[in-house]
Specification:
Blueprint lengths: L4 E5 L5 E3 L6 H10 L6 E5 L5 H12 L3 E5 L4 E5 L10 H6 L7 H8 L1 E5 L12 H9 L3 E4 L3 E5 L7 E3 L5 H11 L5 E5 L5 H13 L2 E5 L3 E5 L8 E3 L4 H13 L3 E8 L4 H9 L3 E4 L4 E6 L9 E2 L11 H9 L4 E5 L9 H7 L3 E5 L2 E5 L8 E3 L3 H13 L3 E5 L1 H8 L3 H7 L3 E4 L1
Helix pairs in contact: 1-2, 1-7, 4-6, 5-6, 6-7, 8-10, 8-12, 10-12, 12-13
The chain binds ligand EPZ.
Length: about 425
């Protein structure tokens, strides 16, 4: 089945100003968190993405009344009558973040049956940290070949220690713990901006949550959480994509609603390439005026505030036509280098073994047909197409693009790019 392709032509330097959409990785978990409340909530700045529509289907199948205005990006959700017995398992199976309904349903309705999404291109994406820690809270959790089952008539406050600062495990357990009597802790927690936005929403609902150094979250359970009106944070990953577009086309792009404090290591690396980064007051607003002679820089991904794995492919793209050599290490996912052969088809010089990639900057690239393997790789290949001679077709690109980017193609065109979803 053709999932469409993104058609890109070599473009002049991208110049101008664009604003960000809401963050996909905040929207999905915050939508799931509404299952902790009974009543009418409003979420604003919700981006019109494939996974958002899938999460709407899941909420509706749980009995919520959902209205979404994709123009205004406003989502109205009434969770007065929820019955999680007939969840839309087809929709759950379609994307990884659907696992995030487990915590809210278990805490509020005491039992859950969730279709297990398969692995995906970037890795097996197991959920063992989620399962192990729900069991520590007293839940009975088991699975068959395609579903996960959980029963928790009562969960007990615990001090949970995560093997790894997993974003999803932190979010799932945090949501459940808001309604578990007593004082619980999550140690070695993920504290990405999207996790902090979820914490803000839960606190607005009436949850008692405290973030404590070095990476711990203290939750004191309450008996009830109330509906909420919340506008989610802007998407730092879309910001990264736009700044790389400026770097790769030697352009000059300003993003007024980017939060520089959410991407400090990423911005530092762009400055080390020789680009001029200007940041507004309190980190509000970021401009990248690209250098004509970018230097290649090495980097290594890691949990926040480390270099985000979701910007690894994009930053790699910027290095392909920079001067010199660099090393790139992907420490978060076990298989997130599948964009390398595709970039090499365009003339990049990248080799990889395991988690390590070595890159030698080249003078220029040539457009051709390439294949997108995940949504961030799709974006990286599109941006390479903007710099490459001739035309590039990113196969499977539209399918992945619509999962992660609400109107990024429109934004790129407004800056002078030739890019079309076909
Ligand atoms: C979230 O995925 C994001 N997705 C990902 O963004 C992001 O790449 C990732 O966090 C890391 O920042 C959403 O928020 C919807 P993890 P998540 O649990 O929660 C392993 C994108 O492009 N692990 O932090 O699934 C896991 O395999 C997506 O927008 C276990 O081993 O990521 C990975 O190697 C891609 N067992 C590492 O931990 C578990 O139980 C980090 O995963 C859970 C995770």
């Amino acid at each position: 089945m053709s999932m469409g392709y993104v058609f890109v032509k070599q473009s002049r330097p991208l110049i101008g100003e664009v604003s960000l959409s809401g963050a996909k990785n905040a929207a999905l978990v915050i939508m799931a968190s509404l299952l902790l409340t009974r009543g009418k909530s409003i979420l604003r700045n919700i981006p019109a993405l494939t996974d958002v529509y899938e999460m709407i289907l899941i909420l509706k199948s749980a009995g919520a009344i959902v209205e979404y205005d994709a123009q205004e990006n406003i989502l109205n959700v009434d969770t007065t009558h929820i019955d999680p017995q007939n969840l839309n398992q087809e929709a759950i199976r379609k994307f990884r973040a659907s696992i995030l309904i487990l915590g809210p349903i278990l805490a509020q309705y005491k039992e859950a049956k969730i279709a297990m999404p398969g692995g995906c291109a970037i890795g097996a994406r197991p959920v063992d940290y989620h399962i192990k820690n729900f069991q520590k809270l007293g839940a009975e959790v088991w699975q068959d070949q395609d579903c996960l089952y959980a029963k928790a008539p009562k969960m007990n406050a615990q001090r949970l220690v995560l093997d790894y600062p997993s974003v999803g495990a932190t979010e799932n357990l945090l949501m459940a713990l808001t309604l578990v009597d007593g004082e619980s802790w999550i140690v070695n927690a993920a504290l990405e901006p999207e996790v902090l936005d979820l914490i803000t929403v839960l606190q607005k609902m009436g949850a008692c949550i405290e973030v404590c150094p070095p990476a711990m979250i203290k939750i004191t359970g309450v008996s009830k959480l109330n509906p909420v009106d919340h506008s989610i944070i802007s998407d730092r990953l879309e910001a990264g994509s736009l700044l790389i577009a400026s770097s790769i086309t030697k352009g000059d792009i300003f993003i007024p609603n980017a939060n520089a404090y959410e991407m400090e290591l990423f911005l530092m690396k762009l400055e080390e390439m020789g680009h001029t980064i200007t940041v507004g007051k309190n980190g509000e607003g970021v401009r990248l005026k690209a250098t004509k002679t970018p230097r290649a820089v090495s980097f290594k991904t890691g949990p926040y505030p480390g270099f985000p794995t979701d910007l690894q492919a994009l930053m790699m793209a910027a290095q392909t036509i920079a001067q010199g050599n660099c090393n790139i290490v992907e420490t978060v996912f076990e298989n997130r280098f599948m964009h390398i052969p595709e970039m090499n088809k365009m003339g990049a010089k990248i080799s990889a073994t395991g988690h390590y990639a070595q890159l030698e900057g080249v003078q220029g690239l040539v457009g051709t047909d390439v294949i997108a393997t995940d949504l961030r790789a799709a974006c990286a290949l599109v941006l390479l197409g903007l710099a490459a001679d001739g035309e590039t077709r990113v196969q499977n690109g539209v399918h992945h693009w619509k999962r992660g980017y609400e109107t990024l193609d429109e934004k790129l065109r407004s800056l002078g790019a030739f890019v079309e979803l076909r």
